[in-house]
Amino acid sequence: MTTVTSDSEVIKAPGESLLYYFNFTDILQTGETIATLTSILEITTTALTISEKAIVLVETTIDDVVIAANAGVLCRILGGLTGVDYNLEATVLTNTSNIRVGRVVLQVREC
After folding, report:
1. From CA 93, how far away is CA 32, in angstroms rounded?
2. Chain-wide mean pLDDT for the chain?
3. Which contiguous run of DSSP H or E holds residue 26?
4. Which of 8, 78, 90, 102 could serve as 49's disulfide partner, Cβ 3.0–4.6 Å?
């Protein structure tokens, strides 16, 4: 499992199937929460399989990083080609009608 925030870079091996968490905790305003997960996608190819998309409903700690309840989203990512970098984007709608976007570069590398 890996926690990502905007402009993060993460690495996975091509054969791995891993859960990834997008943490919006630090960019949400006081009292603002994620109401709807609009999308999580790879914005330039279709080489990744992205499934199990959901809002983090309870406070969760991943890799010593705390994601507040309703302040993060998660997905499972499978696939990718060795040596290729993929641009992931998570878009959410908040309870205050703001649209928030988290981006990450996923690097597929042999470990």
Report:
1. 10
2. 90
3. none
4. 78
- Between CA 53 and CA 48 the distance in angstroms is 14
- pLDDT digit string, tens, across residues 26-39: 899 999 999 999 99
Burial of 9 (0-12, 13-18, 19+ CB in 10 A): exposed
Q: Which amino acid is at 50?
A: I
- List of residues 6+ apart from 73 with CB closer than 8 A: 21, 22, 24, 34, 37, 40, 53, 54, 55, 56, 90, 92, 102
Distance CA 83, CA 101 (A): 26
Q: Reduced to 3 states, what is the DSSP secondary structure of residue 44?
A: coil
DSSP 29: P
**Dihedrals φ, ψ of 109, to 5°?**
-140, 150
Q: What is the reported pTM?
A: 0.88
